[in-house]
Prior knowledge:
The protein has helices at residues 23-36, 46-57, 64-71, 74-78, 104-134; strands spanning 12-13, 16-17.
Amino acid sequence: METNPLNQGAMTVSGAGIGVVSRKMIRERAAEIGLINGHPASEVTKPEWDQAKRELTGGPSVGPKTALLQSAPESDRWNPVPGSTGHSAPESGSEEEDAEGLGVAARLVAEGVNEAAHDQMLQAARAAQKTDESSP
């Protein structure tokens, strides 16, 4: 089974292309997330490691239970007694779009926005840590 290359992980971090994701990159990203969450970068937790890995490698953004619930059709989720299921129409999509219908350009824009938000949170956390260290 072929996979869509657009469903892969991050293409850039802080504006630079990242290439192949290494354990060191995941460790650094997890330390940044830990700092944003308010504890020393040396005390990375499993959820932070998992989040960093998901962000950089393109893993699922939700847990297996949530993914299962979200995979059910909308009509089955709200209808207590499902009626006719109807029929499904063939899906027409471009090979250059991912599962969410985003092309490469849209994906890069979304990734840039997410990375900018991460950088802002990281800078705020570092500034707060610096202020705490300089306070008597």
